[in-house]
Specification:
The chain is mainly α and 421 residues long. The chain is 80% helix and 0% strand. The protein folds into 2 domains: 1-210, Growth Hormone, Chain: A (Up-down Bundle), CATH 1.20.1250; 213-405, Growth Hormone, Chain: A (Up-down Bundle), CATH 1.20.1250. It is a multi-pass membrane protein.
């Protein structure tokens, strides 16, 4: 649907949620890409301790993603959950400066607990809730999710360069900027009107459009072989890749003359890559509609495997820059491909549940189990050897997924018992 073909309310929602993505991912970029650097350089954590922090974040993310997945399908287009996330984001700078950093330096376990609770809610769990909510809004308001998601890539890109420069001066500056932008998120939530038209609202009130969602319905997924095949891909490919990427910034900066220079270059490369990501994301719906969601996920898996294995053999700054850029080709195929796969293979009523629990939850569970172990590998055998092991795992599961993922029509819960895919 072209922007000019949308009615005024739909067009306004497109703009508001495009801006929401921009500022939300700007704030996330103030944290995520440089978080391992902040933990190591500012708080003096070892790679094993850094892995413990990531494990804690993943553990709390599991709890929140289970809740968010079920709550999101219940709430529909109501904004209660997004309001909780935005209010906590306003406290972003005070939390990092006055709570998390002192706790990490006082006691790693208390710091990991606090970091896991906050970051697991607003980002690791919250990002999936934001993605699922806006994807639902896009379907209700007749615009392509991939088109509005582009702005998130741009926000991430701009903040990455800014953070890369400011980090060597004072990382707290970026944290305060992020808290300020969270106030803009609140304004956008107030302005947005994602509800369907008045006729649909009346039908909803009398029950004509009510979705018969229940927790029992969600558990019916466990009886579907297609769900387990999708889970196999997420755990064996996407989850391993996330763990690989957690401390890549520390690996990256080791190729430069000084850690400060490496951090700056990392920010610039992230910016360039994210702008490329935005360009690809804009065309991703057209590409994936043509090649199919299954093939999009397989392409993403191949790119992830190539980047991890390539990193195990990297020996120069040019090579790690190229490998970092590969990430931006993978993200559009994985993210848009996942939503397309869920909507084309499963019952649309469970879209948020499948994304938050089937996709994000399984990734976080793997993160709990793997982050500390992989961090210990970095301390013992080094990045290169650890990356080779992780790359072989993702390549193997990508190959297996060629046979286990399906590209066939959606399966409703009523027919799940007969599903043999």
């Amino acid at each position: 649907m072209k922007l000019s073909e949308l009615n005024p309310r739909e067009r306004h929602n497109f703009i508001y949620f495009m801006l929401f993505f921009f500022f939300y991912y700007f704030i996330m970029s103030a944290y995520f890409p440089f978080f391992p650097v902040w933990l190591a350089d500012v708080n003096h954590l070892t790679k094993t301790e850094t892995g413990m922090v990531f494990s804690s974040i993943a553990l709390f993310a599991i709890v929140f993603q289970i809740a968010f997945g079920l709550i999101s399908d219940k709430l529909g287009l109501r904004k209660h959950l997004l309001w909780c996330i935005v209010i906590l984001l306003v406290l972003f700078a005070p939390f990092f400066i006055f709570v998390l950093s002192p706790l990490l330096q006082y006691n790693i376990y208390l710091g990991a607990l606090a970091g896991g609770l906050y970051l697991g809610f607003v980002f690791s769990g919250g990002a999936g809730a934001v993605e699922a909510y806006i994807e639902r809004v896009s379907r209700t308001n007749r615009f392509e999710y991939g088109r509005v998601r582009v702005s998130g890539c741009v926000g991430w890109a701009i903040c990455a360069s800014l953070t890369g420069i400011l980090f060597s001066i004072n990382p707290n500056i970026t944290f305060w900027v992020a808290s300020g932008f969270a106030l803009i998120l609140a304004v956008l939530l107030i302005l947005s009107r994602p509800e369907p038209n008045r006729t649909s609202q009346v039908l909803d009130q009398i029950g004509a459009n009510k979705r018969e969602f229940s927790i029992k319905m969600a558990f019916e997924l466990l009886k579907m072989p297609r769900f387990w095949a999708f889970l196999l891909y997420v755990v064996g490919v996407a989850s391993i890749y996330d763990v690989f990427d957690q401390q890549f910034a520390n690996f990256f900066k080791s190729f430069f003359s000084s850690p400060q220079r490496g951090t700056e270059i990392f920010g610039f490369v992230t910016t360039g890559g994210e702008l490329l990501n935005a360009l690809i994301m804009f065309f991703a719906p057209l590409i994936i509609n043509r090649i199919g969601a299954k093939n999009a996920l397989l392409i993403a898996g191949a790119i992830m495997s190539l980047r991890i294995i390539g990193s195990s053999f990297a020996s120069s700054s040019i090579e790690v820059i190229i490998l970092k850029t590969l990430h931006m080709f993978e993200v559009p195929f994985l993210l848009v491909g996942t939503f397309k796969y869920i909507s084309s293979v499963f019952d649309p009523r469970l879209s948020a549940t499948l994304f938050l629990i089937g996709f994000n939850l399984s990734k976080q569970l793997s993160g709990v189990l793997l982050s500390t172990w992989v961090g210990r590998m970095y301390d013992t055998v080094g990045f290169h050897q650890a990356y080779l092991i992780l790359g072989i795992i993702t390549a193997t599961f990508t190959a297996v997924s060629f046979f286990t993922l399906t590209g066939r029509r959606p399966v409703t819960l009523a027919s799940a018992g007969a599903d043999k895919a």
